[in-house]
Amino acid sequence: MSVLTRKFSLFLLVVALVVSVVFSSFGTASGSAEEGGAFNASEVIIHHVLDDHTWHFWDGHYGTLYLPVIVYSSERGLDIFSSKNFYDEHHNVVEYIGYKLDHSHIYLADSGKAVLDISITKNVAMLLINATLLMVVFLSAAKSAKKNSGKAPSGVQSFLEPIIVFVRDEVVKPNIGHQYEKYLPYLLTLFFFILFGNLLGLLPGAGNLTGNIAVTMTLAVFTFILTNVNGNKAYWSHIFWTPGVPLPLRLVILPVELVGIITKPVSLTIRLFVAITAGHIVLLSLISLAFIFQSIAVGLVSSLIVLFINLIELLVAGIQAYVFTLFTSLYIGMATADHEHH
Q: What is the CA radius of gyration of the chain?
């Protein structure tokens, strides 16, 4: 057996183990659901996709991570406590010190007024894990690059350097031009943040970080600000006073151009959010088929399909990071390019 074959077999084994862990976690969810009625696939899928104040891995006392709740209201001030206080021993939702939890939103129990919720939710925890992993990996690569200056890269550096060079030479530089170095740190951070977030989200029990519209919108807003703050005179003149166009048409083009400024970050937000969330929903729906039909044959077939789609999702994770970075580079390049009129 060749080295490549052994590596591919090991990879398939790892993916199979991941799928089995996912099925086992669904099995516990199915079992708990059957105690109170039929298995509810939509409820399980929504629970896995949406954000929450708890991080559930499997049934049992040690299978749930209760995250910190941080809330503020003008009536009660600042309160910090564990989300475990919202649940009794049977995991039923209860009120705690004047607060109630309803569909992952926290309200004042007496008035029903919403509070300012800045809790460490599952997606916030995933965000911190993603940022920490990025820091550890790239500080290690930077240390290795400094140590092996003038030598061939090794370790983590040898893995990251080709990707960095690809993003710089094939994505950023062609679209922005000679001043690309000014924006390269942001674009590399953007690319690897999305890539790591997409890959981490495929792990069993992980939070849906890049499938959260608040996260994708924040990244798009950063791009929007960076693009328009650095827009040059030619960029803004094309928007407000398009050259070479008769005055009556300028009155039509102006609102179109202004709408175009807004639609760019909106498209970035929706594209990443939909692509990642749709992938998760498809995987979870296929896994749910085994518990809906309660059939081993259906479970085996859905397992094979899930294994195949998981491989596609690995590709999608890289493609979505590439596309977001590509369009960001393109927007920045359009805003900073020197236009000549003839």
A: 24
Alpha helices in 172-246 (DSSP H): 173-176, 184-200, 213-229, 233-240
The DSSP H or E segment spanning 320 is helix 296-336
Measure the CA angle with vertex 152, ends 147 and 157; round to 5°. Answer: 65
* Mean pLDDT, rounded, for 143-161: 82
Q: What is the per-residue pLDDT for 27? A: 46
Closest residue by Cα to residue 210 from 250, 270, 150:
270
Cβ–Cβ contacts within 10 Å for residue 52, how many? 17
* Strand, coil or helix: 294: coil
> What is the average per-residue pLDDT within 277-296?
85
pTM of the entire predicted model: 0.83
Mean pLDDT of the chain: 83
Q: In Å, what is the CA distance from 150 to each residue of 42, 146, 163, 265?
A: 55, 9, 19, 40
Could you give the CA distance from residue 33 to residue 327 in angstroms, rounded to a whole number?
Answer: 43
Q: How many helices (H) and strands (E) does the chain have?
A: 10, 7
Asked if residues 219 and 320 have their Cβ atoms less than 8 Å apart, the reply is: no
Distance of CA 172 to the CA centre of its chain: 22
Rounded to the nearest angstrom, the gap between the alpha carbon of residue 326 and the centroid of all alpha carbons in its chain is: 17
Neighbouring-strand partners of residue 82: 68
Do the beta carbons of residue 234 and residue 339 sit within 8 Å? yes
- Residue 268: the pLDDT is 94
Residues 240-258 have a mean pLDDT of 80
Cα angle, residue 226 at apex, residues 222 and 232 outer, rounded to 5°: 160
Residue 288, classed as helix, strand or coil, is helix
Q: Hey, is 153 helix, strand or coil?
A: coil
Dihedral angle sign, alpha carbons of residues 126, 199, 204, 278: positive
